[in-house]
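Chain A, query sequence.
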Amino acid sequence: MKKINIGLIWANPYNGNLGVGALAYSSLYLLEKVSKKENIKFSYTVIGNSGPTNDTLDIGEYRIKITNIQWDYTGTFKTLIKVALLKWNQIFKSIKLDLVFDIGEGDSFADIYGIERFRKINGSKRLFRSLGKKQVILPQTIGPFYSEEAQEAAKKSINKTQLVLARDRQSFAYIANILPEKKVHELIDVAFFLPFEKNKLNSDKVNIGINVSGLLWNGGYTKNNQFSLKTDFRELITRTIDYFLSDKRNVVYLVAHVISPNYERVENDLKVCHELNKIYPSTRLAPVFKTPIEAKSFISGLDFFTGARMHACIASFSSGVPVYPLAYSRKFNGLFGDTLMYEFYGDLVNSEIDHVFNNLKTAFTQRGELKEKINFILQNEVSKKETMLIDLLSEIITN
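Chain A, predicted structure.
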């Protein structure tokens, strides 16, 4: 059997941000489907995390063996020398790779989180380009790039990549605008295909999940409304909890989807959920999930879900649970609004709190219709995207 050495970068299966973990699990799951389809043995090296050197992940019907290598190359000469001197084995493993799949942590191939994160995400593209490796940009949000430095560096990286896949229509249009000659495919987030086990909760109650983003609760990394929200996120969350708890038929679960080992970190959802649970003791805390599959399996048993972590919302949507996403960047609008044509989401950047909150209540009361709409989209649109993605991956791997 033919063997290919696959590298997967910026998709950490051990990340406390379960959205990043979902990207890793889902990418490996889809690649393993391609492996079986093409009868090719894949050797997987996952790049950019601090997990065990060798591990086996259970993902759906597959047991997938992976090798991990840490990563601290940001594209600068200084960090290249550091890697070369201290971690020469990582360079050696990188040289052995046949094909590198890059998912950019879903939304980090942009400079909305600052230029340093962009340099880090783009640095790997520069290195693998210099090593002559074929690279694939897996479905992700691409851009925006506000600084001139990021714009020019991103254009070069995209143009030199063998296959470019966008996960939403806005990213697709963005690339078409800045690089009109570059072929790009509009697909969907790979986490839609993450396997899960259907959860069962008390059917006598209406089980509602609220994901509270620690990042938005704390005003972003800068703690001063970094994402320029017009909606007051804290007030929206407390209004939402009050609204659902006012009906004794409802059970409200506070769902953390970013669970940082450093409890005090600004993006940690778990800390905020604990704080809110003390204020609202009749709410329930969702389990502390160890894997994205555990998170999706739990969410699948809910009757309604809302939240500002996009992959928590994807877990809801892709398991058939009515969801009202709370959008703080165009990654939400582009995916749910433009690609899926699912209009039931709140735009925290451009909408006042009353508008977002009233639409959330409408979505909840119409959750039966939402469920039908979601099931239709899953059967008629999402399934087509999976077939298209498998075919594109098969083509780049076999050619």
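The two ends are 16 Å apart (CA to CA). The first helix runs from residue 18 to 38.
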